[in-house]
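From: lab user (bench 3)
To: helpdesk
Subject: output format question, protein + LMH73ZQ5

Hello, I'm new to running complex predictions and I'm not sure whether the block I got back is the full result or only part of it. Here's what I submitted:
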Amino acid sequence: MTIILECLSHTPLQGYHDPVPEILAEVEALQAAMKKRVQAFDPELVVVFAPDHYNGFFYDLMPQFCIGVEATSIGDYKSLAGPLDVPRDIALAMSEAVLAADIDVALSYRMQVDHGFAQALEVLLGGLDNYPVIPVFINSVAPPMASCRRSRLLGDAIGRFLSGLNKRVLLVGSGGISHEPPVPEIANACAEVAERLIAGRNPTPQARAARQERTISAARQFTSGDSSLRPLNPEWDRNFLDILARGDWMAIDDMSNDSITEQGGKSAHEIRSWVAAFAALNAHGPYKASLDYYRPIPEWIAGFATMQAQSLRLVESVAA
Ligand SMILES: O=C(O)CCC(=O)/C=C/C=C(\O)C(=O)O
Ligand SMILES: [Fe+2]
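Helpdesk reply: Thanks, we reran it on our side. This is the complete output you should expect:
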């Protein structure tokens, strides 16, 4: 079995409210390089850890973790819509292995995913169904949330399961570092918004457009400095990325939910996707990671980063 990892920020604002052309070109070049790497690796299985933003998972029944046995992307913002090619038997076996490791993961035969999954799949794989993909949802916007430590344990259990497969596996973590886009919260929502957070599946095109317009307008305000959204925090971002590069799991376990919100903003909990992906890689043995890109991009309300990592076993076997 060989295993590599690609982690990347996502943003629904790409193509709607972009940074200056030089920065956009920088990101596009980076995304093209990631795709090329993945094509060269030619994965036989992709496991994607990602959050949802009240498009597929709602408070009528909000799990902390969910493995998709069948999944469809809804196509919000400019992300691709359509079915993922999920290998059902492997997804089911993975669920059993994770449960056997005492992580009570949910299972879905009709998972809906949004740009959190779809953007990463498009960037890395060139589409939703070009490779077999198992989607793993991690709650990152809907309090109360499990701890970062639990995401590490989820990743570890999945990594140990993957180690038993004789396949080339690509692990993907999709999510922002510090960022606080205008995702509504149930705690202070009016009745109409609360209903949308509890059971807002498949909104009308008008409701969807209004929602997207609110996000774009919030990005304009954030970029102009006239916003109550929490600022980006490059120092915190770089520290977190360094923790992952070093594999400092004690530091990960010490990250409290309150400190993540305080330092990184309400959506910084998406770092869980990176934590789970790295923990899955670590389950296969020591790894070598590199931070390929980091830049705070206010136009996307995002501390924007990409990292790649390889199991040292792979590096050693290539060198031999
Ligand atoms: O309803 C909406 O669309 C609210 C805004 C929203 O979901 C924003 C999401 C932003 C990210 O996914 C991100 O920056 O990671
Ligand atoms: Fe997100």
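A quick orientation on your result: The first helix runs from residue 21 to 41. Let us know if anything else is unclear.
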